[in-house]
Write a structure and sequence with these properties.
This protein is mainly alpha-helical and about 70 residues long. The chain contains four helices and two strands, in the order αααββα. The longest helix has 13 residues.
């Protein structure tokens, strides 16, 4: 039985993969650049990066959250 309400159409696996590929190709890419390339809005891109990909911005680069401080300096 389908759930009532509006379905989430922007946080699909394909969009998550597109965002991840953009970040991995250039770690210094900005959220605005990702928005321009994917056509997603700023909030959706941030939610994909933070919640789905578990990444954070450190020293102008996107890095996985699981890194400790010594590895973030590289």
């Amino acid at each position: 039985m389908p759930c009532p309400g509006r379905p989430s159409s922007s946080r699909t696996d394909a969009n998550k993969e597109r965002v991840e590929n953009l970040i991995l190709s250039d770690r210094q890419v900005t959220v605005e650049d990702i928005c321009a390339h994917t056509g997603l809005n700023h909030g959706t891109v941030m939610r994909i990066i933070k919640e789905d990909l578990k990444m954070t911005k450190v020293s102008a680069r996107w890095v996985p959250k699981m890194l400790d401080n010594s590895k973030k300096e590289i």
